[in-house]
Batch of 2 targets.
Target 1
Amino acid sequence: MTEMLAFPKDFWWGSAWSAEQAEGRGETGKAETVWEHWFKTEPNRFYEGIGPEITTDHINRYKEDIQLMKETGHNSFRISISWARMFPNGGVGEKNPKAIAFYRDLLTEMNESGIKPFANLYHFDMPFALQEQGGWESREVVESYVTFATTCFEEFGDLVYHWFTFNEPLGPILGSYLEDFHYPNIVDFKRGAQAGFNTILAHAKAIESFKKLNLTSKIGVILNLSPTYPRSQNEYDREAAEIADAFYTRSFLDPMVKGTFPKRLVEILKEYDQMPTYEENDLKIIAENTSQILGLNYYEPRRVKARLTEINKRGPFLPEWFFELHNMPGKKMNVYRGWEIYERGIYDLCVDIRDNYGNIEAFISENGMGVANEERFLNEEGQIIDDYRINYIKDHLAYVHKAIQDGCNINGYHLWTFIDCWSWINSYKNRYGLVSLDLKTQKRTIKKSGEFYKEMSLNNGFEYETSKLV
Ligand code: BG6
């Protein structure tokens, strides 16, 4: 049966991106970031050798882009504020008046266009000079981050609707310390645990500073959360799933939302001598300064089974010592990105937050489908006909709707992304946008999904065949 799925009044319809992926370097002055440095030294690591110099050139085209936000039905949008742009002397020292002028103008125009600005303070873009000092492993870097965050609250507090300390803080830990997809490509769990702990501390300290300013906005964090499913109900599979979940889901969710650390994870890290160092007062700061709002990034589930093989104890300690990923037969795939598509996972995630995290105010802060060679789908008028993306959005949103009906406190949906943007080492391989980008000319064209998005936002919902829901 086809039904109109109506969303709550004032639901946030929008999308998200980040400074390093969309702005381009521009002329304001900006410290070198780890991405710019890594691209300079190892361009071969980036798809087709395209780096972060220009990306989607938003810094020069933001006025045109805000018009496109309106034309694609946005009532809200997440940007990130570049630390390197705000503090061009290596992320510390004097703040940058040109950066402040840019962000103030951007945020003002968004507000005047009826688009609520959501601002994130860190999206993988460490100033290189601070990485040289140890990055998140260094407590001085934590203090520099708090200074940057406080400066943003003071300069933009009147213009930002909601704040986020970090986007996916787990990402740089996996990429930089375990899996070799972020600079500085270290493989060392214990150092990663230290960087992770300091990130959690930085989040809490930024919230502590935010609360002193008595702004009307809220502050929280955006986490990439994959529900963990065991291969079977076999006790060993379930144990493997429980441990994987502790490493990848509870590790940041518990301290950043509840102010506590997951017991199972701490036990394992102690047993294997992987605990970070900290000061006693850090735990108090973390406990007292938790998120007021939570962004949920959902792309794929995590499927796990008990290990089949012995661990190589002469290799580096890794979470995979306790489980293996399960390649579930018959799963639906986004073959371009190599991620499973499992729409019901978004429902299970929302229910977890409802039941285990006090039903904190939350929203879907990222979800989306990256597709390679999208020019295959151009029609004669030069528009990309991306019905697959429209279906992807509807199929996920139908489960978000169900979650809301079942009492989950979900107030919005932000797609990844608005205009095609730069995807780190994948560069412009997979396109995620509601608006396509011609990389040679920077011409923007609304895709079919962009038109659909506008209609959905205007209707505050869409027609859906609800018998598809399981
Ligand atoms: C999210 C990140 O994990 O996924 C984005 O917050 C990223 O920065 C997006 O671009 C899509 O992933 P990818 O690797 O295809 O760019």
Target 2
Amino acid sequence: MVKYIGVNDRKIDLFEGQFVVPEGVSYNSYLILDEKIAVMDTVDINFKDEFLANLEKALDGRKPDYLIVDHMEPDHSASIKALVDKYPNIEIVGNQTTFKMINQFFPGFTFKQVLVKEGDKLSLGKHNLSFIFAPMVHWPEVMMTYDSYDKCLYSADAFGKFGALDFDDPEGWACEARRYYFGIVGKFGVNVQNLFKKLPSIDLEIIRPLHGPVLTAPLDEYIRLYDIWSKYEPEADAVTIAYTSVYGNTRNAVNLLKDNITKDYDMFDLARDDFHEAIEGAFENKYLVLATTTYCSGIFPKMLDFLHALKERGYQNRTIAIIENGSWAPQAKKLIVEFIINNFKNIRIIEKTITIKSALTEENKKEIIELASELNK
Ligand code: FEO
């Protein structure tokens, strides 16, 4: 039997100190009750008391034998010591890097340990666990635990999403899972692909990530999306417009553009909209339009931040159009092209770029409508 013992965090201001999570986030933990009992990860330190109370209730008088630590980031590991303080005979199951990190996060902490290697097995009775190492999905110590009895993969951060479990997300799973993926795991596409090479050998009906809902069969759509995302392929033949505008003239340009786009589009004001939604949009769609101004002889700061965020996440395989605005000595277009060439892979830059000098001219309007036609193809 498996019981949920995790928590919903609706108090958090910023996840990982940077992601807005208006509907909170869950830190998932499970209790596998068999002849032996295993706790699957813990929760953020602010919820340790709630977690321990959930655990005690689920144990119903029994004691846990193992704590499986699939991921050492503190949103899942910070309550490890409190758990061991309460149940000192529990054995922590992890790999070499797990234990190194436990020593770093909890200096001087002593505990019983079971060191596992890739593919090692641990039987709880009917539930037979095996350990699949998934380094850099999202930290180096990450491993996933497969329970062959339930055909369940405890997938660490992979397949997680923002949003507390008491939030019935009207957008479904993909939207906030995608923002989570490209915000947090996006840099590690190769590592996710390495994981996928191991998955076909296991019979899978359930995925229990550390954040967000349990995913149940058919799992094909979740796996299809993760495969696309981790290969850096566009998911949709659609357009993302990312812009900055100091006095509204560049905004006028992108408004005219969007009004003439006939396919799906997203548009983000990089100074005002959720930055990570914009990153998500850049990865989701095939086309990216960058519209910005020259500022202090460089690229406007919010746009430069955006370009760096894409670079950090391995941005590639897209078509980019550029609209620049500069009242004197415009530089943004030239600098963005250089940035793209030096930092992104396999990008087609739409040859016809648009330079606005302060406000839109009739010629600029014509160019923007032509750009829309090119994006609509
Ligand atoms: Fe949810 Fe990488 O921690």
